[in-house]
Amino acid sequence: MMIRQRFLANILPLVCGLSLPIAAFGQLEMSKDAKFKVDDPKFTELQSPEIQDGNAKSFKPKDWLEVEVKLQPDRVRNEPKDGYLDQINVNWHVVVKGQDRKNYKISKSVTYVNIPVDEPVYVSIYISPNTLKRITGSSKASKSDLEAIGGEIEWGGKMVGFFTYGQKAGWWREALKGVEATSKFPLLDKTQTPFAALWYDRYAEVQPKN
Fold first, then answer.
1. Are 18 and 103 in contact (CB under 8 A)?
2. Residue 112 in 3-state DSSP?
């Protein structure tokens, strides 16, 4: 298996064109029962993996864009005796700059299960090669493609952490001038990508679809 990945080291900081109030979010309403330590989003360009299985087929690997966040419970009231939280939800929001001079906000909620309270895990979201090219017009992932990233971590129906990049926390809750919210372009969780089985123990388990 050959995977080429290039970290987008120069992706910070982005200069965003979103029009937001200065105090877009105010004070976050965090859960009183738990708090998570959440790192800033990291970005990685990944090529589709080439798997040698004896049935070689010719294809040219394309570029994916991965957004990854490291998190860990920092404080949990009434911590479970087995040391695991049943599940958490992560609400992802990404604004991508389109080739048509529009900005597109795409969102996805992902449920993760069996979250250890004593060690960090990573959660991630992906933009496929075809989605990237359709929006941006380019087959190469670039720092200029992303205007903003943001999200909230929920446990027990309450927010226990958040992350943001490119704008102040809570921008995703505002009506953004020049940004079109759409479901036409999908965000994908790790199980929906060719990387599903890779680096498995690094990532939180995505709740299986029934």
1. yes
2. strand
Q: Where are the beta strands (DSSP E) in 8-102?
A: 34-38, 42-47, 63-76, 84-97
Question: In this structure, is residue 8 part of a structural domain?
Answer: no
CA atoms within 13 A on the CB side of 96: 26
Residue linked to tokens 């990291």: 42
Confirm if 10 and 45 have CB atoms less than 8 A apart.
Answer: no
Give the CATH number of the domain where residue 182 resides: 2.60.40
Flag whether 4 is in a domain: no
Q: Is residue 69 part of a domain?
A: yes
Domain interval for residue 68 = 28-49+61-77+87-200
Whether the per-residue pLDDT at 2 is higher than 50: the answer is no
Residue 23 lies inside a defined structural domain of this protein: no
CB 141, CB 65: distance < 8 Å: yes
pLDDT at 28: 55
Is 0.70 surpassed by the pTM of this model? yes
Give counts: helices (H), strands (E), the chain: 1, 11
| Total domains present in the chain | 1
The model's pLDDT over 18-54, given as tens digits with 9 standing for 90+, comes to: 433 333 444 557 888 999 999 999 999 999 887 777 6
More confidently predicted of 67 and 15: 67
